[in-house]
């Protein structure tokens, strides 16, 4: 069931309990987790934090903790499958689910006792009504003789004889029942067809903190990062992003306003969040402007930097801005103050001339003391890089803790480390995009585009991770759409596959919807993958919380793809 | 030795070696109950999700129409009419009562009984001069007998049984048919009333109504009533009665109407659900080939009871099983094991498990007819209840099969499939699997190939799983697993270190790369 009063129905319940906090491996989940941890600290709630990377992980974590815990809080996992069916919990286990995955499984929606969904009702949910998908036993069977339609069960020992009219009505009702079932299938098909994402988990938990009047600037910042993660990883529509930014901006003003009476000046340990209309250049404040332009998807795609022509255009662009190359190529921090002063305006003006009308975007930045300034999207990139670090000796658990740590204000060193990793990651992505475009690795398969990263491609290990591969896939599709002359291909979704585990001979496969400015970001690959796997009995593992990401045996790749083509044609 | 105790446990489940053939049936009953419980729980689970029960929209208009009729006449008025001496009023009252009893919602069974109407109704059954009154009374009593045991008891105690039996001979077909129906309800109440009816010679009276001209509708009711006369155990229906019914039942089984076939098959399934002598009576009639052919009937309502009957028969003696095999059951079972309904898969696998419990020749026939591939498929992909039956089939196979047969089983992937199932939660199933593994090792010992099998089990990731089972919460599982390891897996470490042997192997294999194919199946 959906929780309507998150304070009464969730917080007041768990505050006196020991809580198992199961957190998915994505940035929004980490942020929600940070906020919740802070709240739990305030109220001295005992909790155990367990990172989970997939369904199997979730199942194991549940089994390990079901004896000691009654309350389970699931962040960014659990909403889109029948949880009770999956976990088979005892009657007294309660699950509080704060998950952006849509559609929410209908059984979760209509279970009143064990599944509590912390999901904003104003999200575009479209849950079928109860009567359309569930019927009660009495109605279903009528009584004993009504079960005959099901067939195969033992006949009843006794039978009552009904009036003739009654018999007709019974037949009529059976017919209605069949119609109802057909309609039910249709409704559920429509409802479950597409996968998409709802309001950020961090924002939902932040709102709880606000309702409790325990919200702090740190919490607000985490909520901002949660939302920005959804934007960076292309999970929500532009409309939704802008709307939610506006919501957060109100909170930001409130917080800034609150502090105005106090000293009103920056101090060494203060934190100040500000709304910015900043550049869509990744990490530019921690890099050089030039490198950031080269490695940001927006600029790189617009210039087509993988081509000579593109490189030339970039030079022209820089000249147009009138910035000395030396300044542009040196560390941003060391750029002349005079150049930096109205840099954003200068860049915007030239960008407009070069067809980049959206070079600026509404976002937030944070000042920690005097020295440190970070943009929300930069923190997302840094945290993601830490979370999916492929450095040796890092277990997923370690990475999770490091990523979580880098979100704390006290741990700026770790954040800087993450930024360095993120730079490497972005460069790897850009190089891979360039080589895929230049060597025509993206093939049109009819109903979709397909790209397979061969074993031995540089940085291929990085792309065995879901978030990195997602980012690559998005940038690649944008680049492809810019570079191809085939109009039909511009409207196609993209599937990418990359080696996952060489020893197990598996690949990770993921699909994203077509690239367009008005895209609703709804992804149908989840269902399609399931169907294709079923039809060909391919050995697949649908373990990821996003159904559009699966693992597949390398040998089964061809037949799986063939089935997918047939299915979607 | 823990292994011996589980072996005994298993032995008693075998049809041949077991001293108690009823044990096997117990298993099936326990499962049925469990199934029903599961279904109920499922409904419960769904139902508890609801806060406000949605009103049954399409039921209300019906209620209203019923109420119109009902408000026209109350039970008091019915009593007045029925007790009057006026024929027309009697008929009208009786009809009104029948209508009350025929409505879908809350028929006033108890109220009618308590109004003292039953003795009058039974009396009306004998009114050959007024067929419509007879008919209404028969219908009303039929519906009362369809209630709880108490309701049925009321009908019987008012002397309805002899009245209905004489009514069977009525020249009016619809009245006779109503009597058949009423008697079916009484027989369906349980073994006591079933035998009361049999003692009143209901069977010859019923059978005399089967003629080439009898309409299908009538035959359907009659078949159902006959099936109720075959139904229920503790005690079974008397042998003489069974022998009386069987020829007609065989006759009905050769018709083509789906409902008749279904009820007739159910009747056979009741009759075969007993000790070997009970099964024998059915097998003697020569009906087995027909039953086997009905297993491929298109309607599930026929397939299920036919399969159940054959399943019962192959749980009998080797000779009885052979009759079913000779009738071609082995060529039908593979398709049923791939049936879309899991319940059918489970029943079919249950039958296979019993054939696998037979002598080596019968196991050979299983192999020849290609039952191994679907069986192993089900071990891999079947639903859990089916997997459990399949595991039994494998264990029975390994215990009765020759060394060559067992080797073929392993080569077809049977070992891998059962090893993968060692991770299930149900400890009983685990014990059955461990038994199969034990049997395999005994076969390997005969061949002197123990080491090879050890290696294979290891390679398939089985050793890791068996080692894990030593931490199992169930005591017997833990001890059986330990015994297996001690017996077959420790002596290959000649360096000594007996006490740390298991730990040592543990670490050795921790580094081993898992067989991909297996871990990847999902």
UniProtKB/TrEMBL annotation, chain A:
This protein's UniProt keywords: Cell cycle, DNA replication, Nucleus
InterPro entries registered for this protein in UniProt: CDC45
This protein's record includes keyword Metal-binding: no
Acidic residues bias spans: 135-147
Pfam families given in the database record: CDC45
One cellular component (GO) term of this entry: DNA replication preinitiation complex
Similarity annotation: Belongs to the CDC45 family.
Name the record gives this protein: CDC45 cell division cycle 45 homolog (S. cerevisiae)
Native organism: Oncorhynchus kisutch (Coho salmon)
Gene coding for it: CDC45
From TrEMBL, chain B:
Organism: Oncorhynchus kisutch
Residue ranges with Basic and acidic residues bias: 7-23
Species lineage: Eukaryota, Metazoa, Chordata, Craniata, Vertebrata
ARM repeat ranges per the UniProt record: 159-187, 244-286, 370-398
All residue ranges annotated as the IBB domain in the record: 1-57
Cellular component GO terms, alphabetical: cytoplasm; nucleus
Name of this chain's protein: Importin subunit alpha
Keywords: Protein transport, Repeat, Transport
Residues spanning the membrane: none
InterPro entries named in the record: ARM-like, ARM-type_fold, Arm_3, Armadillo, Importin-a_IBB, Importin-a_IBB_sf, Importin_alpha
Stored PANTHER family: IMPORTIN ALPHA
């Amino acid at each position: 069931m959906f929780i309507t009063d998150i304070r009464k129905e969730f917080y007041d319940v768990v505050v006196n309990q020991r809580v198992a906090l199961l957190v998915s491996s994505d940035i929004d989940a980490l942020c929600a987790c940070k906020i919740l941890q802070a709240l739990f600290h305030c109220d001295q709630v005992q909790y155990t934090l367990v990172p989970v990377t997939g369904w199997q992980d979730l199942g194991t974590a549940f089994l390990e903790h079901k004896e000691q815990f009654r309350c389970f809080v699931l962040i960014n996992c659990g909403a889109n499958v029948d949880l009770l069916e999956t976990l088979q919990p005892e009657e007294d286990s309660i699950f509080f689910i704060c998950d952006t995955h849509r559609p929410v499984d209908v059984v979760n929606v209509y279970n009143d006792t064990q599944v509590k969904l912390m999901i904003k009702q104003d999200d575009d949910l479209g849950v079928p009504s109860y009567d359309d998908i569930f019927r009660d036993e009495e109605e279903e069977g009528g009584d004993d003789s009504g079960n005959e339609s099901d067939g195969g069960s033992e006949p009843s020992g006794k039978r009552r004889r009904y009036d003739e009219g009654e018999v007709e009505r019974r037949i009529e009702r059976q017919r209605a029942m069949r119609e109802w079932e057909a309609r039910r299938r249709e409704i559920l098909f429509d409802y479950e067809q597409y996968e998409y994402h709802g309001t950020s988990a961090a924002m939902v938990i932040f709102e709880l903190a606000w309702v409790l009047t325990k919200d702090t600037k740190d919490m607000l910042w985490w909520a901002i990062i949660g939302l920005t993660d959804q934007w960076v990883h292309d999970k929500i529509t532009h409309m939704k992003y802008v709307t939610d930014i506006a919501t957060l901006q109100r909170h930001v003003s409130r917080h800034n306003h609150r502090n105005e009476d106090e000293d009103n000046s920056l101090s060494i340990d203060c934190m100040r969040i500000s709304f910015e209309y900043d550049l869509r250049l990744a990490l530019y404040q921690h890099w050089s402007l030039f490198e950031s332009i080269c490695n940001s998807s927006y600029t790189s795609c617009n210039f087509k930097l993988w081509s000579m022509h593109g490189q030339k255009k970039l030079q022209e662009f820089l000249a147009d801005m009138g910035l000395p190359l030396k300044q542009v190529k040196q560390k941003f921090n060391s750029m002349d103050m005079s150049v930096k002063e109205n840099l954003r305006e200068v860049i915007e003006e030239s960008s407009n001339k070069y067809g980049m009308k959206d070079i600026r975007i509404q976002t937030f930045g944070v000042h920690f003391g005097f020295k440190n300034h970070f943009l929300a999207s930069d923190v997302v990139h840094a945290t993601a890089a830490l979370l999916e670090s492929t450095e040796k000796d890092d277990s997923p658990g370690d990475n999770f803790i490091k990523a979580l740590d880098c979100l704390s204000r006290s741990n700026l060193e770790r954040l800087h480390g993450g930024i360095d990793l993120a730079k490497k990651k972005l460069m790897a992505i850009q190089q891979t995009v360039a080589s895929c475009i230049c060597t025509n690795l993206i093939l049109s398969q009819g109903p979709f585009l397909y790209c397979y990263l061969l074993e031995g491609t540089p940085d291929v290990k990085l792309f065995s991770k879901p978030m990195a591969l997602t980012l690559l896939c998005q940038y690649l599709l944008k680049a492809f759409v810019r570079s191809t002359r085939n109009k039909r291909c511009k409207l196609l979704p993209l599937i990418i596959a990359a080696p996952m585990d060489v020893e197990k001979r598996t690949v990770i496969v993921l699909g994203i919807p077509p690239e367009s400015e008005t895209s609703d970001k709804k992804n149908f690959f989840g269902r399609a993958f399931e169907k294709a796997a079923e039809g060909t009995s391919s050995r697949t593992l649908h373990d990821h919380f996003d159904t559009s990401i699966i693992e597949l045996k390398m040998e089964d790749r061809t037949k799986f793809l063939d089935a997918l083509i047939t299915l979607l044609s | 030795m823990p292994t011996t105790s589980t072996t005994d446990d298993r032995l008693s489940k075998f049809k041949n070696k077991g001293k108690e053939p009823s044990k096997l049936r117990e298993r099936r009953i326990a499962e049925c109950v469990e199934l029903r419980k599961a279904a109920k729980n499922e409904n419960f689970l769904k139902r508890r999700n609801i806060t406000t029960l949605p009103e049954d929209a399409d039921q209300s208009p019906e209620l209203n129409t019923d109420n119109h009729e009902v408000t026209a006449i109350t039970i008091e008025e019915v009593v007045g009419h029925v007790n009057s001496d006026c024929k027309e009023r009697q008929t009208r009252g009786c009809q009104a009562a029948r209508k009350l009893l025929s409505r879908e919602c809350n028929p006033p069974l108890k109220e009618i009984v308590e109004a003292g109407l039953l003795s009058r109704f039974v009396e009306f059954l004998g009114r050959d001069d007024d067929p419509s009154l007879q008919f209404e009374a028969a219908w009303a009593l039929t519906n009362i007998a369809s209630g709880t045991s108490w309701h049925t008891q009321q009908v019987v105690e008012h002397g309805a049984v002899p009245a209905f039996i004489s009514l069977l001979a009525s020249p009016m077909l619809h009245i006779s048919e109503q009597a058949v129906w009423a008697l079916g309800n009484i027989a369906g109440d349980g073994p006591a009333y079933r035998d009361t009816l049999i003692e009143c010679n209901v069977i010859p009276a019923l059978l005399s109504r089967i003629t080439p001209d009898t309409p299908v509708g009538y035959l359907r009711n009659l078949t159902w009533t006959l099936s109720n006369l075959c139904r229920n155990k503790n005690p079974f229906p008397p042998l003489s009665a069974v022998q009386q019914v069987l020829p007609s039942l065989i006759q009905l089984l050769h018709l083509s109407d789906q409902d008749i076939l279904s009820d007739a098959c159910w009747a056979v399934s009741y009759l075969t659900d007993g000790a070997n002598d009970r099964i024998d009576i059915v097998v003697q009639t020569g009906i087995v080939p027909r039953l086997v052919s009905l297993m491929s009937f298109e309607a599930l309502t026929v397939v299920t009871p036919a399969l159940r009957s054959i399943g019962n028969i192959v749980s009998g003696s080797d000779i009885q099983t052979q009759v079913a095999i000779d009738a071609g059951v082995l060529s039908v079972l593979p398709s049923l094991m791939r049936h879309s309904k899991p319940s059918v898969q489970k029943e079919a696998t249950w039958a296979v498990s019993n054939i696998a419990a037979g002598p080596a020749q019968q196991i050979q026939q299983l192999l020849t007819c290609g039952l191994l591939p679907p069986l192993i498929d089900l071990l891999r992909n079947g639903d859990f209840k089916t997997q459990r039956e399949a595991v039994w089939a494998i264990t029975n196979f390994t215990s009765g099969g020759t060394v060559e047969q067992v080797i073929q089983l392993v080569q077809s992937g049977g070992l891998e499939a059962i090893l993968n199932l060692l991770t299930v939660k149900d400890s009983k199933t685990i014990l059955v699997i461990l038994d199969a593994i034990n049997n395999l090792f005994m076969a390997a010992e005969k061949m002197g190939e123990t080491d090879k099998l050890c290696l294979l089990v290891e390679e398939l990731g089985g050793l890791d799983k068996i080692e894990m089972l030593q931490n199992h919460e169930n005591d017997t599982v833990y001890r059986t697993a330990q015994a297996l390891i001690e017996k077959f897996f420790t002596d290959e470490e000649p360096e000594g270190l007996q006490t740390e042997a298991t730990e040592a192997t543990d670490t050795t294999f921790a580094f081993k790369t898992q067989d991909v194919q297996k871990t990847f199946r999902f």
